[in-house]
Specification:
Layout (H helix, E strand, L loop, with lengths): L9 H10 L4 E5 L5 H15 L9 E5 L6 H15 L4 E2 L8 H28 L3
Parallel strand pairs: 1-2, 2-3
Length: 128
C-alpha cells in the first residue's frame, strides 16, 4: 500500500511492471485477508495510472498445498468474484499448477509479441 505514491520501492516496481510483457498477480492463499490484499494491489495499479490496472494479467491463488479441496473451491470462487474472471491455482512448494501458470504466461507473452510485430509491420508498410 502506498507504492503509487512513492512509498518504498513501490513506484519503481510499478514502472517496471508497466514495461513487462506479462503480468502475474499471485495472491497468498494463506492470508486471512486475501480479497483485501487483492484489492489493495489493484488500487495501487489504478492509482499509478497509465492504464496499468486495465492491462491483461493472470491471477493465481497460491499456496494451495496448504488447503483442502473445499477451502480451495471456496477461496477460488471468492477471488474470481473479486477479479471478475478466472483464477488459477498453484503451489510453489509442491509445484502443483506451476506448469499451467507458466503456459498461461507464455501465451500472454506470445500474444503481446505478435501484436507488437503486427503493429511494427503495419507502421513500416506506411513508410516509403
Amino acid at each position: 500500500e502506498g507504492a503509487s505514491e512513492g512509498r518504498g520501492l513501490g513506484d519503481l516496481f510499478l514502472g517496471h511492471v508497466d514495461r513487462g510483457s506479462a503480468r502475474l498477480h499471485l495472491v497468498d492463499g494463506n492470508s486471512g485477508t486475501l480479497i483485501e490484499d487483492y484489492q489493495t494491489i489493484i488500487g495501487e495499479l489504478e492509482a499509478y495510472g497509465a492504464g496499468l490496472a486495465d492491462k491483461p494479467r493472470i491471477t493465481v491463488l497460491n499456496k494451495v498445498d496448504a488447503m483442502d479441496a473445499e477451502e480451495r473451491a471456496f477461496l477460488r470462487d471468492e477471488l474470481e468474484a473479486a477479479v471478475g474472471g478466472p483464477v488459477m491455482l498453484m503451489s510453489g512448494v509442491s509445484r502443483e499448477g506451476v506448469d499451467d501458470v507458466l503456459r498461461a504466461l507464455r501465451a500472454q507473452i506470445d500474444a503481446r509479441l505478435a501484436a507488437e510485430a503486427e503493429a511494427n509491420a503495419e507502421e513500416q508498410s506506411w513508410q516509403p
